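Hi support team,

I'm filing this because I wasn't sure whether my run with zinc ion finished correctly. The job status page said complete, but I'd like someone to confirm that the output block is well-formed before I use it downstream. Pasting the exact inputs I used:
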Amino acid sequence: MAQAKQITPRAQDFSEWYTDVIEHAQLADYSPVRGAMVIRPNGYRIWELMQRALDDMLRATGHRNAYFPLFIPMSFLAKEAEHVEGFAKEVAVVTHTRLRATGKQGKDAIAVDPTSALEEPLVVRPTSETIIYAMYAKWIQSYRDLPLLLNQWVNIVRWELRTRPFLRTTEFLWQEGHTAHVDEADAEREARLILGIYRRFNEEWLAMPVLTGLKTESERFAGALRTYAIEALMQDNKAIQAGTSHNLGQNFAKAFNVQYQTAAGGLEYVWSTSWGVSTRLIGGLIMTHSDDNGLVAPPKLAPVQVVIVPIWKTDEEKTQVSGVGSRVKTDLEQAGLRVELDLRDTMKPGAKYFEWEAFGVPVRLEIGPRDLASGQVVLARRTGGKAPVPLQNVTSSVTTALDEIQGALFHAARERREKNSIRGATKAQFIEFIKGSGGFAYGGFCGSPSCEAEIKQQTNATIRVLPDPEFRSKEVPRNCMWCGAPSIVEAVWAQAY
Ligand SMILES: [Zn+2]
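And here is everything the job wrote out:
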């Protein structure tokens, strides 16, 4: 990726814009392995901050972290019929364990050693239900062992043909929770609890508003009883699925024979859930907030929250402004903020502003000799607006600004989503909307998979969720938006990533 070119404006080409933002903010780069990406320090820091916040929420609700192996015996995938069908087309398979020197030159110098073929091939985890349930069968004996609430932070491989940084890559990072319960009600409570945690995490940390609801059968996780999801609307009016939580029923318990002794002395299969969010959230964050100048990072997840840029002409001025700059930096760091002091003398202030803007830093403090003479510094917000603040109150001014930016980003994103949502549209209006500006379209649904398939085929829109009550329209739709048959449930359609 060359650095010199400008960021393509959103209005010109949204997809180019997206990759330009990633490049200019140095979040990720393409790797020598097709479809896999390198997450650079700026991008990885966002992930670490996400991990910490979500991990705290999961821990606070009784979940513990563990680690299960990357390799899964191939036969395990076959044990749950729907599951194998869902993942068979995208798994990487390990068949050999050794290379050998051939004595030839160049790329032929090594070859797979045919004598090292594995008796049973291993798949690289596309998700870990199968290996985890194999272990749960050992660990769970009695109702006293339940609920078992585990999570792991790992990498996943799904052999994708069409990839985009963060949104869809062959290898990605995620957390996957896997829990086992005594009955369906407890598993259902867990699946819903996690959906609520995901929502809160997305809204409070990413400042990304989400719809919550149930997936239809065609969008359900392979092997699940019910899949719940959170869905967000990006600036190009396409949806992304930002997280899923599955009530797996007893499907995996039966496939892996995970039984427990009930309090009454009988034998029962456990009820289980699984749930995950991934580095895809970084793609969602980018497409929710960023602008034509580059990344806009919500303050809570910004790798750098404040950049201090001293301005000077003479050496004497430089000594003065950088002295104040480092004092301000220390104060802000003591207040728990992530701060950079930009003392590079190879760059003009304007060029520095430009670069830190592309990096998404929410607040910039400009410290010049004239400002100091009047006891102030200039506070510039990444989201617009610039004003002097008294030097003595700089910490409280900065923390207030960061809180305001975090809140304003969420409200702007929610307002944008609502402005780009339609309710109760007719078939013709729906088609015009989806093929035009796009967004979330709410409408009645007859429940028929063939209706769903026809809509997808003609408009490329899918049901993102059957929304939870709080998101449903005041007026209950009476007819299916597409076929006119009686509606059994309200649905939200959109084109999606
Ligand atoms: Zn219909």
